[in-house]
User: Fold this.
Amino acid sequence: MKNPFALSAEETGEKAKKIRRNIIEMNSNAGAGHTGADLSETDILASLYFNLLRYNINNPQDPGRDRFILSKGHGVGGYYCTLAEAGFIQKSLLSEYLGSSAKLPGHPVRQKTPGIEFNTGALGHGFPAAVGMALAAKKTDASYRTWVLLGDGELEEGSNWEAAMSAAHFRLDNLTVIIDRNTLQLADRTETIMALEPLPDKFRSFGFHVIETNGNSPELFLKAAAGAMKTVGRPSVIIAKTIKGKGVSFIEDQAAWHHKIPVGDEITSAIRELE
Amino acid sequence: MEELRDCFVEELSRIKENDDRLYVLVSDSTSTCRIKPFMEKYPDSVINTGIAEQNMIGIAAGMSLGGTIPFTANAAPFLLGRSNEQVKTDVCYSNTNVKLAGLNPGFAYGSLGPTHHCIDDISTALAFGNIQIFAPCDPEETRQITRYAASYEGPVYIRLDSFKADNIHKASYRFTPGEAVVIREGRDISLITLGTIVHEAIRAAVALEEEGVCAEIISLPSIRPLNPEGIIKSLQKTGAALTLEEHSTHGGIGALTSEIILDNRLDCSLKRGGVPAGYFAEAAPREVLKKMYGLDSDGIISSVKEILSKMK
Assistant:
């Protein structure tokens, strides 16, 4: 199985821009959403869905597909817009985000949205489940890879470190953990709330192959992912340095935009910046 | 007499023979679940996640989404208590095909105290959506419930007691999800119980018979789903009920019975036996605790007499 798009880094970047415009429009239309988180992760999601993940768009449940879990479930807006761009869901459905039809709720639900593998929203759940997926592949000689995207603030949940210990113990080289390292969580900077650094050393000491990269550059992120996929005998973590709210100057790098949405003139300004 | 956990493990081996998808996850709980015979046969199919129950449940959910059928087996107090949100979200809400065996529930750990007691699991599991809840009372039922859990597509919780028991059920018995099982017919009072307390209820009913009291015993191996008709029929006949469980009287089968009485406007007296709501069980040997909370046969006899005398 292959990635159905196999876009270049440059083309992936263009897709990311399109997804960002859809995020702004969708969140503004819904009147709610986690805009900062959605824009932070966009280049990572675009890289995954338009280059890295192997899946069959006509059969999202194909047992041989690569698995992806969005552990930072509040970033579901970026996820829906990516899934719509990839063709898992109709783009027209985005107008129902957070709406009364309950078809596109505020956190991922696998029973509702094709392409979603696991229900998240409560933090610290995606990593252990990804370990389980990767372990099942090892046990059954399946060749799919498992990817999981975590928010950096999410690493404060202890369950992640239980999962990290087990991923290395089970030598899950078919697992790649991605950290959306935008350094902001709901209330403030991660380093102010509960310091994560030295984060690479922490993962190294847990037995991970650690790759640090720019998570807002598809080119650099794809290179990092290639390094992760080549690693043998241990899991990889890509610490993807990102800017929360990336792409819209007045949203970038501000804790206040965690779950704020653009209104009025802000919408047109944001879209203009993303053209 | 057979230990119920051994029956569970034996059945897992039988299932594994025909279905390679089955895996057992333990959280350093290899001795708790007496998994050794299975492990000797299928060493690569037992996954020890270490003392990390939350991770164990998350891994189980992920494994099921990788096409396997994971059974987790660990001490009940560290299952729904420790991994509450993992069971809720990763198993129930995500509708993953995970089977959870909670071992030594109630106050089976006796003197080890409330950290090791599990008197809130039925209440917790009933409050979750999308999970079936079973509690076998004897070796035969343990085997059948294990088999059913493996064949059912979706989340299952098995409240599995550490207990050596003779069979109450004959080999011809067929476990049916949802069915309230009449263990013994009677006319004066309905003893509604589950798991190993069924054996105490039988002892009590035999003794009461000699005093002219004819107690009906209803066992609830299937707490969810539960078709209330069997209970309704019994309560309409006897007009009196005593529920018996190693569980808080809040949220267990006592509460379930009171809901059935209210929902169906039944004219029925009810006493709920168990650990009084709002209290921990004492840190004392299990047999002492059974006596303390009226769950041994003597306690059951006293409660029955008390209920019947009040009704006169």
User: Anything to note?
Assistant: Chain A touches chain B at residues 63, 67, 110-111, 117-122, 125, 127-137, 139-140, 142, 144, 146, 158-159, 162-163, 165-166, 169 (CB under 8 Å).
